[in-house]
Design a protein that fits this description.
Aspartate Aminotransferase, domain 1; 9 helices; 4 strands; 201 residues; globular; alpha+beta
């Protein structure tokens, strides 16, 4: 019997209409490929576990996202896709934006093998060149889900916004980025800048 978390049923039901078939499809592929997978909710998003973190999915206003916990070892990814959405597949607005079911199943199998073998996710290289400030959609969506967070963020100076965005983008692993996202939203909702602890020292 598959391990189903009813909170994920609710998450899908409460997602935008376009997102529901995408989320159901991704969930089905994971369960069919990994019958022993377990479901849970972390950082307000559906996660799939198999001998550790396996993958996760999320829905936003205009797109979905899907990523493997050790995706850097599984999916060849262009830099812009990693910045435009969480995970390794960029902005997923329809099923056509995903690889074939067979390809996705192959990724799941590889992710399972990595967990079974105890392979650690590699650290992400920090970009050298300065870049234009672009706030990722997943960050904006997370801010909108927390009362007052988006308003506080918009009131910050450009440099204060950049500190938070760079902190997220410079995370070396997906787990680190998700933890930072949760912390950032909490601080911003309280009107705190990234380095608020040191501002009054």
């Amino acid at each position: 019997m598959p391990t189903i978390d009813p909170r994920i049923d609710d998450y899908i039901a409460n997602s935008a209409e376009f997102a529901q078939p995408i989320l159901r499809h991704l969930r089905q592929v994971v369960h069919e490929t990994c019958p022993d997978v377990e479901e849970t909710i972390k950082w307000s998003m559906p996660f799939f576990l198999y001998q550790g973190m396996l993958c996760n999915m999320a829905s936003f206003k205009a797109h979905c996202a899907f990523g493997f916990w050790k995706g850097e070892l599984l999916v060849a990814q262009e830099d812009d896709k990693g910045r435009e959405a969480m995970g390794q597949f960029g902005r997923i607005a329809s099923l056509k934006d995903l690889p074939s079911k067979k390809t996705m199943a192959a990724y799941v199998k590889k992710a399972m093998a990595l967990n079974t073998e105890g392979v650690q996710a590699p650290a992400r290289a920090k970009p050298n060149a300065a870049r234009e400030l672009v706030v990722p959609d997943y960050f904006l969506a997370a801010l909108e889900d927390k009362a007052g967070a988006r308003e506080h963020f918009e009131a910050f100076s450009p440099s204060a916004k950049r500190e938070y965005v760079d902190w997220l983008l410079d995370a070396k692993t997906e787990p680190t980025r998700l933890r930072r996202l949760e912390q950032a939203v909490e601080w911003i909702a309280e009107g705190k800048q990234r380095n608020w602890k040191y501002q009054n020292c």
